[in-house]
Amino acid sequence: MNYDPSVYNYPSRRNVVYAKKGMVATGQPIAAQAGLEILQKGGNAIDAAIATAAALTVVEPTSNGIGGDNFALVWLKDKLYGLNSSGKSPKLISIDKLKERGITEIPKHGLIPVTVPGAPAGWVALSQRFGRLPLTEVLAPAIRYASEGYALTPNVAKLWDSSYTLFKTIFKGEEFEGWFKTFAPNGRAPRAGETWKSEAHAKTLKLIAETNGEAFYKGVIAEKIDEFSRKYDGYIRKEDLEEFECEWVEPISINYRGYDVWEIPPNGHGITALMALNILKGFEFTHRDTVDTLHKQIEAMKLAFADAQKFVADPRMMSVSTKQLLSEEYAAKRRNLIGKEAITPEPGNPETGGTVYLAAADEEGNMVSFIQSNYTGFGSGIVIPGTGVALHNRGLNFVFDPNHDNALEPGKKPYHTIIPGFITKDNKAIGPFGVMGAFMQPQGHLQVVMNTIDFHMNPQDSLDAYRWQWVGGKKIFIEPSFPNHLAVQLSRMGHDIEYLLDSTSMGRGEIIWRSDDGTLCGGTEPRTDGSIAAW
Q1: The CATH number of the domain where 67 resides is what?
Q2: 7 pLDDT more than 80
Q3: Residue 484: inside a domain, yes or no?
Q4: Number of domains the chain is built from
Q5: C-beta separation of 325 from 412 below 8 A
Q6: Cα separation of 87 and 84, whole Å?
Q7: Among positive and negative, which fits the CA dihedral 357, 35, 42, 363?
Q8: What is the mean pLDDT of the chain?
Q9: Helix, strand, or coil here: 152?
């Protein structure tokens, strides 16, 4: 793909960034600089991605942490690799055990929704297989930020304050004291421009780097997690941590108008974007800003989500296969359900959001699409004392129904919302892309892919463009910049349209494309403190 500005259909509202030697794009400027620092020290794109990801646990704890999960797509020497570093539920938990305690649904906070964190193991696996520099050097910027402190950016400060305001109302138990001591040491959330630091976080990152993750999964950190969980009636144990292993997986794809669009397979829900694109490639689209284009995009997304929410789970427990869900025959069946009016989607019968995203690239052609999350903001609200480790609440995505594919069971991976994306053409890398935001993520992927391929928008314009989000039934959220005449027409077709004054929930994305001559072209998210570091 040759990104010649003369082929763009849309005038650029913000400048894209070009570079030759390397680029890191993410939602936090300091984290992007951490990745660039590693590139300039001789690291490759994989080293830069790890450095950025680790730094994000410090400078954007409102969306991710050491106690979360991550996924990656890595392009290296003309091959795409997939890493699934998401954890399983504790072996001691079950629906029956929760019912015995009078619990009838999985709670959002506390120890119950905590699954085994995969983030540290993901960094280690990427470093050992593809990295060039030692992990101690790669994590050094993150350790420095945690130890010395950094000044909060506006979006992080806003999210931090929102969480504090909520948590001080709903967190009553002793087990939540660690969150307030770590993230509100002065009795409030830190404000934009103020400095926050965590020596405990720095110490944990240093232990992870020096032991290649052993301290987290088999050593002192694992022991502290086990001790805390036992004390407060949680289910996770050191044995769960000791048994954790990353999974190298074969990425899944569909061909969309000559381009291969790639995602991580289930338990992630990247397949949702692929199913929707598979439906949409049966139509022709010439203009983005038409009611016909928007209606068909929304309807395809609804149909894909209906299937994903029924069938996507730990792949060992899925009643249908990825191949069946992505078949041309099944896409045609679903496509035929799209008419002139909005529908309430139902799953078919195939025949037998808080997240951070980053993209990194180097001059050798290596590229990384990387995503990491504590799930809902700070996650479970549990911070293990003395470690700075905020545990995620990914178990919230399990279904409290023993007959569902995604039912809560011991030692099982839940339906997972974080998804890195990648595009290739003719076995050559176009590049990484991603849009954060829980169930907005596949919807953002679809819109970014179509902005790029169908409507010839550059990376920055693809991200700047107004977005829509299906949230259930016929309800569609739209941004203030969404054209009013199109909103009115969609409403007449049966869509329940609602403008959002705050675009935070509309996803936060990053893109890096690579031209035929090796030039890197990047775009960053306007809905957050997005930044591109390049040289």
Answers
A1: 3.60.20.40
A2: no
A3: no
A4: 1
A5: no
A6: 9
A7: positive
A8: 93
A9: coil
Q: Please check the confidence at residue 3 and state whether its pLDDT lies above 60.
A: no
User: pLDDT tens digits for 183-209?
Assistant: 999 999 999 999 999 999 999 999 999
pLDDT tens string 370-429: 999 999 999 999 999 999 999 999 999 999 999 999 999 999 999 998 899 999 999 999
Backbone angles phi, psi at 208, to 5 degrees: -60, -45
Asked if 260 and 306 touch (Cβ cutoff 8 Å), the reply is: no
As a whole number of Å, the end-to-end CA separation of the chain is 21
Residue span of the structural domain in which 19 resides: 1-466+510-535
DSSP annotation string for 227-288: HHHHHTT----HHHHHT---EEE--EEEEETTEEEEEPPTTBSHHHHHHHHHHHTTS--S-S
Residue 497, domain member (yes or no): no
Ramachandran class of 449: left when φ > 0, alpha when ψ lies in -120 to 50, beta otherwise: alpha
Closest to 136 (Cα-Cα) out of 197, 67, 208: 208
Size of the chain in residues: 535
Stretch 252-268: mean pLDDT: 95
3-state secondary structure of 445: helix
- Checking if the pLDDT of 8 tops 60, the result is no
**Domain-located, residue 45:** yes
pLDDT at 259 over 50: yes
Neighbouring-strand partners of residue 215: none
Judge whether 525 lies within some domain.
yes
- Could you identify the residue written with the tokens 């700075």? 388
| Cα separation, 470 vs 465, whole angstroms | 17
Catalytic residue set? 355
Rounded distance, CA 407 to CA 91, Å? 14
Look up residue 268 and give its two tokens.
């992630």
Q: Helix or strand or coil: residue 499?
A: strand
Least confident piece of the model among 8-17, 271-280, 405-414, 524-533 = 8-17
Q: Where are the beta strands (DSSP E) in 10-124?
A: 17-19, 22-26, 69-76, 79-85
At residue 154, does pLDDT exceed 80? yes
State residue 348's pLDDT score.
66
Pairing relation of β-strands 389-390 and 421-425?
unpaired
